[in-house]
Write a structure and sequence with these properties.
The complex is a heterodimer of chains A (234) and B (289). By secondary structure, chain A is α/β, with parallel strands linked by helices. Chain A has nine helices and ten strands. Chain A has a single domain, classed as Rossmann fold. Chain B starts with a helix and ends in a 12-residue tail after the last helix. Classes of the chains: A alpha/beta (234), B mainly alpha (289). Chain A: Keywords: Amino-acid transport, ATP-binding, Nucleotide-binding, Transport.
C-alpha cells in the first residue's frame, strides 16, 4: 500500500489554476523526485500535501486515510514534515532552538539533537549562534535538521539547492542520500534533473501544473526527463 | 544636585509603570504585527473592575490585583479568539479598525456604568508613605511598582526564553505561516499573547489608579504612553520596552519639575525626535522587509 496517494488534484490561486489533475503515489521508504522548471507547480503540490496550501479538487490520502480536511498542525502530528523553500528559519533564535521547535511536536524517535549534529557536524559547533548569522548552506542544514527533529514518516524537501554553491549542494545531497539509506520516505523537489535522478527511486516531471512524465529514476532517463521538462514531445 | 537625583529616581520608578503599559502593546505588535487600539481601554477597565471589586469585597485592593489580571487575561483571550482572529490577514487595517471599534465600545460601556468622574483606588496610607535616603524622599508605592514591573519583566523573559510555550511564541513572531509545520496553532498563540497583554494592561491601569486618578476617558492617553514607550524603547525585545518606559518617564518627571504647565508635551516631542533621528528606538532591532 502507498503511504501517500494523490488523485486528480487541482489547485488555484484566484483565477489562476496552478495544478491540473495531479495523481501520484509514494511508497514507504521510497524517495520521489519532483522535477520541473519554475512555475511548474512543484511547490504548490508540496504545500498542498503539507496542508499549507489549499486545493480545490481531488483526493489526498496518508496511509489510506483521507487527509483532505486536515490542518497543517494535524498533518505534522500524523508525521508529515517539510523543509520549505528558502529555508524559512526562525532567524532570531539559536540553531539549538530552531531544532527544538521540531522536537516540541513531541513525536519522539531517532532524530534528537545529537543525531542531527552527527548528520551535520558543521552546525554542532554553532548550536548557540542565532540562525540568521549562519551561511546559506548552514541554514539549509538547520532547516533539514529542524524537520528531522519532528521524526517524520514523510519528509517533503523543497528546492534545497536553491541559491547555494555547488559544493554546499553536494554536502546537503549527501545528507539526503544518508536519509534514503535509512529508508526515510522522501519527496524531493528539485530543478536540477541530474541531482533529482541521482537521489531518487522514482521521479515525476511536472510541466505547467501537470505531470508530463513519470518513471523510475535512472541515468538513462535523463534525456526523456529533459524533453518533458522543457515541454518537448517525447 | 538633589533635584537631579530626585528626577532620576522618580523617573526610574515611574518608568516601571510606563513599561508595563508598553509591554502588552509590544507583545501584540511583535507577534501579530497589529496595534491594539483598545489597549488603553483595557487598562482603564482593569482599574474600574478593581474599583468595583474592592468596594464590594472585604479585602485589600492589593490582594485583588491578581484576580483582576486573571479576568483581563480571560477578556483578552476571548477578544482575540472570537473577534480579532477572524479578521487577521496580511492587511493590518481590518484588525486595526476592529480594535478601534472595541475601544469605542469599551469606553462607552465604562461611561454608562461608572459615569465620567475621576476615580482613584484607595489603598490606605501606603499610597503616600515613604522614606528618605540622602535627602531624597522615596515613596513605598512607586518603589513597589518599579520592583513589581522588574520582576514581571524578568519572569516573562524567562518564560519566553526557556519554555516550550515561549519558544512557540517567539517562533510565531518570526514566521507565523511556517510554525504550523511544527504543530503550533498560530491563532492559539495569538490568543495567548492578547490575553497576556490584556493582563499586563489591566495591572498597569490598576497601579496607575492607585498612584493617581482615572476616568473612562483615560484610555487614549494610556495608549499614547504605551505607543511612545515602544517607539522610544524600540521593538524586538521586551527589555527595550522597559528602557523606553524609563526614558519616557524621565522626560515626564523632568518636564514636570522645570515646566509644570507643559503636561506631556516633552514626551511627545521626544517621540518625534526618535522617529526622526533613531526610528529603531534605544534598543530596537532594525527590520528590513
Amino acid at each position: 500500500m502507498s503511504m501517500l496517494e494523490i488523485e486528480n488534484l487541482d489547485a488555484r490561486y484566484g483565477d489562476f489554476q496552478a495544478l491540473f489533475g495531479i495523481s501520484l503515489n509514494v511508497r514507504r521508504g521510497e524517495t520521489i523526485a519532483l522535477v520541473g522548471a519554475n512555475g511548474a507547480g512543484k511547490t504548490t503540490l508540496l504545500r498542498a500535501i503539507a496542508g499549507l496550501g489549499q486545493y480545490h479538487a481531488g483526493v489526498l490520502r496518508l496511509n489510506g486515510r483521507d487527509i483532505g480536511s486536515a490542518s497543517p498542525q494535524e498533518l505534522a502530528r500524523m508525521g508529515i514534515s517539510m523543509v520549505p523553500e528558502g529555508r524559512r528559519l526562525f532567524t532570531g533564535m539559536s540553531v539549538a532552538e530552531n531544532l527544538m521547535i521540531g522536537a516540541d511536536l513531541g513525536r519522539g524517535g531517532h532524530w534528537v539533537r545529537d543525531a542531527v549534529f552527527d548528520l551535520f557536524p558543521e552546525i554542532a559547533v554553532m548550536a548557540h549562534r542565532p540562525a540568521g548569522l549562519l551561511s546559506g548552506g548552514q541554514q539549509q542544514m538547520v532547516s533539514l535538521g529542524r524537520a528531522l527533529m519532528t521524526n517524520p514518516d514523510l519528509l517533503l524537501v523543497d528546492e534545497v539547492s536553491l541559491g547555494l554553491a555547488p559544493v554546499v549542494v553536494d554536502r546537503v545531497y549527501a545528507a539526503l542520500a544518508q536519509l534514503k539509506e535509512r529508508k526515510t520516505t522522501l519527496v524531493v523537489v528539485e530543478q536540477d534533473i541530474r541531482r533529482a535522478l541521482d537521489v531518487s527511486d522514482r521521479f515525476y516531471c511536472m510541466l505547467s501544473g501537470r505531470v508530463a512524465l513519470a518513471g523510475a529514476s535512472a541515468p538513462a532517463a535523463f534525456d526523456a526527463v529533459s524533453r518533458a521538462y522543457f515541454g518537448e514531445a517525447a | 544636585m538633589s533635584i537631579v537625583i530626585d528626577i532620576l529616581i522618580n523617573g526610574l520608578f515611574l518608568g516601571g509603570l510606563y513599561a508595563l503599559f508598553g509591554l502588552g502593546l509590544t507583545l501584540i505588535f511583535g507577534v501579530m504585527r497589529i496595534a491594539n487600539i483598545a489597549h488603553g481601554e483595557i487598562a482603564v477597565a482593569g482599574a474600574l473592575a478593581l474599583f468595583t471589586l474592592g468596594g464590594n469585597l472585604p479585602v485589600h485592593p492589593l490582594v485583588l490585583l491578581p484576580v483582576v489580571m486573571v479576568l483581563a487575561f480571560g477578556l483578552g483571550w476571548l477578544l482575540q479568539a472570537q473577534l480579532i482572529n477572524r479578521v487577521l490577514s496580511a492587511d493590518p487595517m481590518p484588525a486595526l479598525l476592529l480594535t478601534f471599534g472595541l475601544s469605542v465600545v469599551l469606553q462607552n460601556l465604562m461611561v454608562e456604568i461608572y459615569g465620567a468622574d475621576n476615580r482613584s483606588i484607595d489603598i490606605g496610607t501606603i499610597k503616600t508613605a515613604g522614606f528618605q535616603i540622602g535627602g531624597v524622599t522615596l515613596g513605598y508605592l512607586p518603589l513597589a511598582i518599579f520592583l513589581l514591573a522588574l520582576v514581571l519583566f524578568g519572569l516573562l523573559h524567562l518564560g519566553l526564553q526557556h519554555t516550550r510555550l515561549g519558544r512557540a511564541i517567539r517562533a510565531t513572531s518570526q514566521d507565523a505561516d511556517i510554525v504550523a509545520l511544527f504543530g503550533i496553532r498560530q491563532k492559539r498563540v495569538f490568543a495567548l499573547v492578547m490575553a497576556l497583554a490584556a493582563g499586563f494592561a489591566a495591572l498597569a491601569g490598576m497601579l496607575l489608579a492607585m498612584r493617581s486618578t482615572i476616568t473612562p476617558f483615560s484610555g487614549a492617553e494610556r495608549l499614547l504612553i504605551a505607543f511612545e514607550v515602544i517607539v522610544i524603547g524600540g521593538l524586538g525585545s521586551i527589555w527595550a520596552s522597559y528602557l523606553g518606559g524609563i526614558a519616557l518617564a524621565l522626560v515626564h518627571v523632568a518636564s514636570f519639575y522645570f515646566d509644570p504647565a507643559s503636561g506631556l508635551l516633552y514626551g511627545h516631542l521626544t517621540l518625534l525626535l526618535f522617529l526622526l533621528l533613531r526610528p529603531q528606538g534605544i534598543a530596537g532591532k532594525v527590520v528590513t522587509r
